[in-house]
Design brief:
alpha+beta, 2 helices, homodimer
């Protein structure tokens, strides 16, 4: 279960388009997974209503991959989104595919600012005992 | 989109039960989300076949929450699993609910060893510029 988890908190994204449409966001994600060589097992996306009649609602979704998962949540009223791409490297090193998927989604959402955290998951030896 | 992301890489879990059944793992996750006061918008779980006839297959899934997401992947042949619970605190502090969900799933999977990483998502000011 060792693997790479790419975490992106995205600020000042390109307005509209993918941020306010679960339908478009879903297609973007599924196409990007396929283009990156990752295997989609299933997904669920959801369209939020806006907080009031003046706002569009955000979109949220998760894609279950054979290699682990992709999760994305958007706040169009702030032009923000969060992105998670996690791949396990059990039978092959899928890190390059994860980076490709992450980069494709960043290129589509066009954030001016990114708070990125790359987390390496799993260790050869556990470092903490459960209580 | 500031929030808490609980990452757990779980070693030496209780064999069988939830690790090798997407059906049981799904019910565990959905019940735990509800018990923690989180709002399930949808989910997808998938049952893997074993690598060969001597092995049972793992389970994998993601739950899309109004507050963000839960993702879980298991390797019953190693008694391992990975767990992600991410909640945003946009309209309320959902951290306690995330901790409750995480604790419930840990109690069910019974790992002897946990590699835990608690990642605080989002900042008041972005710290990195996109290229």
């Amino acid at each position: 279960m060792k693997g790479l988890h790419l975490i992106g908190d995205l600020y000042n994204c390109a307005p509209g388009d993918f941020l306010n449409s679960a339908k478009r966001l879903r297609k973007l994600c599924l196409d990007a997974c396929q283009a990156s060589g990752l295997t989609v097992l299933g997904e669920h996306f959801y369209q939020f209503d806006g907080f009031d009649a003046t706002q569009v609602g955000g979109a949220t979704g998760a894609v279950v991959l054979a290699e682990s998962h992709l999760a994305i949540h958007t706040w169009p009223e702030r032009n923000q989104a969060t992105l998670d791409v996690y791949v396990c490297n059990v039978t092959a090193d899928n890190s390059a595919k994860a980076e490709a998927l992450y980069d494709t989604l960043i290129a589509a959402l066009k954030p001016a600012d990114i708070l990125a955290q790359h987390v390496w998951r799993g260790k050869d030896l556990p470092v903490a005992k459960a209580a």
